[in-house]
Every structure is written in structure tokens, then in C-alpha cells.
Amino acid sequence: MPCARDERTHGTPQHSAAFMRRAMECWGDTIYRVALSQTRSHQDAQDIAQDVFLRLLTSQTHFESSEHVKAWLLRVTMNRCHELKRTWHSRNMSYCSDEGTLETALQKGEGPAVLSPTEDKALQALERHPLWKALAKLPDEQRMTTVLYYIEGYDATEIARALGCSPVTVRTRLARARKSLRVLLDENEH
């Protein structure tokens, strides 16, 4: 079943296999890419995407439309990314205090792995691309908005609804992100 914008889901049981399959087909790739843009880790992005869909499965939320499902999924994805960042930071601060600096530990091959040696070549090429590196340096809100707008193809109104802000805020974040990306890419060229 296509991901129609005006499709009503309140007649469908929220926990049905068909509902979950449709949600995963429609937004699974988007959720993974958003998580990847926030975590910059293939494994973390997969874990977050899996967790988001498990939360959807157990959610008691009554979804009014496919648009509502999409917005819910994006919000939960962002929340999970923030939770992961907080727990990762606290875990690594205790690791650093016990073992010296995190940078030293990583140089020794200890501590948390950022990239898996089994990642496919396309993902590795993406991570080496100057635009991806510049995108990773943006603040979370700008990075999320940029990914949703330029990579996922959502318009400012859809992004605003999903992120719980106004379309003006979305356009401001996009303008600031473009400006920052220009500067970062210019620095990369020199």
C-alpha cells in the first residue's frame, strides 16, 4: 500500500503486521538516514532505526494519517539520537577519567568503535565525502533540517510539523546551514 499523504490509519489496527510493514517500507530508509546523519555510525543508526520501529509496534498512539505516522517516527528518531548522545557522552567521560583521554584510548584501539570494518564501500565513500564531513559539523537542528529537506525531499511545512517548530524556523535553519556549509566546504578546498 503506498504512503499516501491523506491516507487514514485509524481503521487499521496499530499493531498489525500490515501497518508495520507499510511504515517500514515507507519510512525505514528515511529513519535510518536521519539516524546516520545524527550519529555518524552505521551500527548506531541501525540500532536506533530498529528501536524506533519497536516503539511504533508497542505505541498506543492513535495515528490520524500517514503524515502523522511520519512525524511521530521522525520525532522518536531524534529523541533516540539525543538519548544515545547523552549516554555515549556519560559513558565515555567515565572511561576517560579511568583511562586517560578518550582520544588516547581510541589511538590505542580501545574504547568504543566509531566505524565497523564490515561497512559496505558505499557507506565508507559517503563518510569520506567532503559534503558529508561538513554536514557532520553542523549543529543537530541544522543537520536534521538539512537532511530532511535536501536528502529526504520534505518541504519546510512537513519538516516543521515533524520537528514541532514553525516553517519560518525551518527556513532559518536551512539558510544558516547553507551558509555554514559554504564556509566549511571552502575551508576544505584550501
Task: Walk me through this protein's architecture.
The chain has about 190 residues and is mainly alpha-helical. The chain folds into two domains: about 10-90 and about 120-130, Rna Polymerase Sigma Factor, Chain: A (Orthogonal Bundle), CATH 1.10.1740; about 130-190, Winged helix-like DNA-binding domain superfamily/Winged helix DNA-binding domain (Arc Repressor Mutant, subunit A, Orthogonal Bundle), CATH 1.10.10.10. It has helices at about 15-40, 40-60, 65-100, 100-105, 120-130, 130-135, 140-150, 155-165, 165-190. Helix 2 (about 40-60) packs across helix 3. The protein is globular, with a radius of gyration of 18 Å. The model is unreliable at about 5-15 and about 90-120 (pLDDT under 50). This is ECF sigma factor. Keywords: Sigma factor, Transcription, Transcription regulation.
Task: Please summarize what this structure is.
By secondary structure, the protein is mostly helical. The chain has helices spanning 17-39, 42-58, 66-99, 102-107, 121-128, 130-136, 140-151, 156-163, 167-189. It folds into 2 domains: 12-92 and 119-128, Rna Polymerase Sigma Factor, Chain: A (Orthogonal Bundle), CATH 1.10.1740; 130-189, Arc Repressor Mutant, subunit A (Orthogonal Bundle).
